[in-house]
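In response to a reviewer's request, we include the raw inputs and outputs for one of the modeled complexes. The two entities were modeled together in a single run.
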Amino acid sequence: MTLDAQNFALRRRDIVPELLKDRGDMLVVAGLGSTAWDITAAGDHDLSFPLWGAMGGSVSIGIGLAIAQPKRRVLVITGDGEMLMGMGSLATAARLNLHNLSVCVLDNEHYVETGMQTTHTSTGTNLSAIASGCGFENSVAVSSQNELADVLPRLREGPGMQFASIKVRAEKLGFSLPPKDGVYLKTRFRKAILGDAAVSST
Amino acid sequence: MEWWQGIFKAIKDANVRQVAYVPDAGHAKLIQACVDDDEITTISLTTEEEGIAVLAGAWLGGDRGVLLMQSSGVGNCVNMFSLANTCQFPMALFVTMRGQWKEFNPWQLPMGSTTEPTLELAGFSVNTAEDPNDVSDFAAATLHHAFVGGEMSALLLHQKLTPVKTFGK
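The model returned the following structure tokens for the whole complex.
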């Protein structure tokens, strides 16, 4: 683990509850591993879809969801490792200029689940610059509490498509596991949006 | 009616709202028809695996979606198929075949010969349409399997249906 990342000021388990506070009807997709545990530690919710696999797919799921539910904010929370595996999806999202999509990367510069190996962001890959280069008009890099206070409301409410990469301390935290039954996660999410139509035959 | 129009009609009849695609010469007219349709949102992908996740997101939000691609793209999707399989997301794939019939480019052959078993191993029910007159029915059945049956369903469009690509030779 790099010394720098061990000393980053911001901590993921402080940020995520703040981000999801008063979430209203916001739809949340979390990338596998740490961010799925983070949103669960903040309080499991019917309108959360935590991933246990599908690495690199979180933003793409957010794209389909944002198109289907244009009146709601869709928030994708993921880690640097997961984002690096699906960087093309940032170009796909930006091309669509989805007005209701927010992407929040908690960047600790490490793969926590697999033994704290460093990711490319530890050696200079700049995810907010990549998002900006893909066409996200609102893309910021955050590393301080002051910057965080500005960006959290924008991730929750917009305006427009938002991207933030937030440097967070590399630390191994306790597991906070969401349900892992994928059919259950899917059905509860759809029922919370669509009501009984989610499970009625068509 | 050209064969691709049969797919377009089936897509419209099934109230599909999202069409994700990686361009392919065989799908060019169908893609353009979808782009031109006001009720359909088209999603141009950088790689086919994004499309599997987009279809999952569409379904989570109450939309029906389909993915248009060529056979080489099936190989790009393999791990993402487990999202559809584990969560039982309906999937409807329309795959134009390369490396199957009068193929000019040998680099298409390996994926052309493994597209069908790859899809079956991943949990798809797979049909192949060879006759242009059959495409419309197969397309409707593929969408029915997905959205009424809740299955992962793929229709392979035989290379006989698409123009032979000769790279100017």
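As requested, we also summarize the result in words. The two ends of chain A are 52 Å apart (CA to CA). The mean pLDDT of chain A is 97.
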